[in-house]
Design goal:
The complex is a heterodimer of chains A (about 210) and B (about 200).
Chain A lengths: L2 H6 L1 H5 L5 H13 L1 H18 L10 H32 L4 H21 L4 E7 L4 E7 L1 H8 L6 E2 L4 H4 L1 E3 L11 E2 L9 H5 L10
Antiparallel strand pairs in A: 1-2, 1-4, 3-5
Helix pairs in contact in A: 3-4
Chain B lengths: L2 H35 L2 H17 L10 H19 L32 H7 L2 H10 L3 H12 L4 H8 L3 H18 L2 H8 L1
Chain lengths: ~210, ~200
């Protein structure tokens, strides 16, 4: 081990931070090399001097000053957080009054009824076709009507106003769209059902 | 469940624990702060600011690490940050020759150092001041490493953890710091202190 290598490891040697083999090699080198030995003495002396420095005492009020500063800061933080929690509690965690509960239940019942009606397309409807001059009763579904009205898979047009399409409803079921017919010109829309529906349902005018 | 009460209760426990730590560690922390800054006013500010920051991030404190070491890590960062914020002055090393201008010979500065005169040291017991002056002249990283190793007695591993650097860096900083310190302390003083 050369002097340069030993010199760079002297502090770690003094602090006992070297592995056994390296420590031993430096120990052996120091017993032979005066230059390195002098440097070692100097560094060791420096370490001793620094470690023997007087302990400086703080002012007696230092811990109280620190704690009061922390409390000041903590009070600011807590007041802000408390405000957030209070707002949250007011908005979410507040117990509901009986009137609020009844209102909520009513709204839930209405929603459930609406959903149930949407999912029940098979309803008996009664509708009048002015062009047939009578009232026809159908127990059908929108799918059946769509098939009846658009047998050639023509593009479908959704319900027009009843007066325009020549059909009036005596009853309307939510979600049920009985007037689905092939696209056609306004002039030809006079008797659309007569062209497509079976004759037994719409007997021709005599 | 009352979250506000839960929160305030946890905060109260943390606060109580931290108050104990302040009472237990403030002397030691102040001593390190003094050696870092070199005067009482700055040491006081540095200690307070370090404890305040420690409290702000107390929820991140890993209990496996001694609190003092964690505090020293914060302190060394505060110390370096605060030094960076201070106005910078042009410094002139006493060791380097002063340039008198073009065509003029450089001037070697010589200032009497009364505090490092051996007889006066013996009389006024200013060993402390002499060493502190030398410490003040060390680069920050070297100073922190020397103080943590020689005053606080931390191992290289602990210093590396505190300074957030490798073991090799700690070894190098300590060695160079001690060598610089030795150069700055007058030879007479070194000889007198050896005996």
């Amino acid at each position: 081990m050369n002097c340069r290598k030993v010199s760079s490891s002297l502090s770690a040697y003094i602090d006992g931070e070297l592995a056994g083999v390296e420590h031993r090699m430096i120990f052996d080198h120091l017993s032979l090399c005066e230059t390195c030995s002098a440097e070692y003495e100097g560094l060791l002396n420096m370490k001793r001097m620094v470690s023997m420095l007087k302990i400086r005492e703080p002012h007696e009020t230092l811990p109280l000053t620190i704690i009061s500063r922390i409390e000041e800061e903590q009070n600011l933080n807590i007041s802000w957080l408390q405000y957030q929690f209070m707002t949250l509690r007011e908005a979410v965690l507040r117990p509901a009054s009986p009137s609020q509960i009844s209102l909520g239940l009513s709204a839930a019942v209405v929603c459930i009824a609406l959903l149930a009606s949407i999912n029940r397309p098979h309803e008996k409807i009664e509708w009048s076709a002015l062009h047939t001059g009578g009232i026809a009763s159908l127990d059908s579904s929108s799918q059946t009507l769509a098939q009846m009205e658009s047998p050639l898979n023509l593009p479908l047009q959704f319900a027009q106003p009843a007066a325009f399409s020549g059909i009036t409803y005596s009853e309307t079921i939510p979600g049920f769209q009985p007037v689905i017919r092939p696209l056609q010109s306004r002039n030809n829309a006079r008797n659309p059902m007569q062209q497509n529906l079976p004759n037994q349902l719409f007997p021709p005018n005599r | 469940m009352d979250f506000a009460r839960l929160f305030t209760s946890a905060a109260r426990n943390d606060k109580r624990e931290f108050d104990d730590l302040v009472h237990r560690c403030h002397r030691q922390a102040y001593n390190v702060a003094y050696r870092l800054t070199g005067n009482h006013a700055d040491a006081d500010d540095l200690t307070q600011e370090s404890f305040l920051r420690a409290y702000r991030f107390f929820d991140r404190y890993n209990r496996d690490m001694p609190f003092e070491n964690w505090l020293y890590r914060i302190m060394s960062r505060v110390f370096i940050d605060e030094l960076r914020k201070r106005p910078k002055f042009k410094t002139q090393s006493f060791d380097a020759p002063y340039s008198a201008g073009p065509g003029e010979n450089d001037i070697q500065l010589e200032l009497p150092d009364s505090t490092c005169d051996p007889s006066e040291i013996m009389m006024t017991n200013s060993l402390d001041e002499c060493l502190q002056n030398a410490l003040n002249e060390l680069p920050n990283e070297f100073r922190i490493a020397v103080i943590l190793a020689d005053i606080e007695g931390l191992s290289y591993e602990e210093i590396a953890e505190t300074m957030n650097c490798s073991l090799g860096t700690v070894r190098s900083r300590l060695h160079r710091g001690r060598k610089l310190l030795r150069q700055k302390v007058s030879p007479q003083f070194r000889d007198s202190s050896r005996n």
